[in-house]
Task: inverse folding
């Protein structure tokens, strides 16, 4: 399942209300920068020039996050999105997928969730290897 989230903000500029909205593919985005400027991303994908007064006004408006999919669901609460928590969850998911592949190939275990002690041992071995 892909990890996406919809970002939007509402602001008034020159007597008009604007509500740029984009759906963000977090799998493509989360691995890049340590911090992501969601206002700039929103502006770039909706045609708002980041050197304009409209962008300056938009930067003052809070971004609302909703309609999350995948792991992003657990990292979204009341319109707020925790990017650090998403990255941690995504990293853990990738580790578990790799460990599951090893368990299937080497031990013929098709679901580590069915064998929690083995799952725990593999995670401990993984973490030991990281040190």
Result:
């Amino acid at each position: 399942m892909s990890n996406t989230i919809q970002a939007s903000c509402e602001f008034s500029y020159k007597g008009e209300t604007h509500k740029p909205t984009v759906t963000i593919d977090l799998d493509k985005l989360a691995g890049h920068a340590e911090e992501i400027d969601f206002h700039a991303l929103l502006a770039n994908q909706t045609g708002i020039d980041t050197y304009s007064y409209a962008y300056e006004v938009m930067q003052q408006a809070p971004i609302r996050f909703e309609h999350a999919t995948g792991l992003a669901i657990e990292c979204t609460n009341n319109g707020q999105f925790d990017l650090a928590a998403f990255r941690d969850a995504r990293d853990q998911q990738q580790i578990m997928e790799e460990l599951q592949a090893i368990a299937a190939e080497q031990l013929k275990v098709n679901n580590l969730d069915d064998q929690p002690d083995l799952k725990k041992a593999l995670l401990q071995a993984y973490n030991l290897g990281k040190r």
About this structure: Strands lie at 4-8, 11-13, 16-18, 21-25, 64-66, 76-77, 80-81. The longest strand covers residues 4-8. The helical segments are 26-29, 38-46, 53-59, 83-107, 116-130.
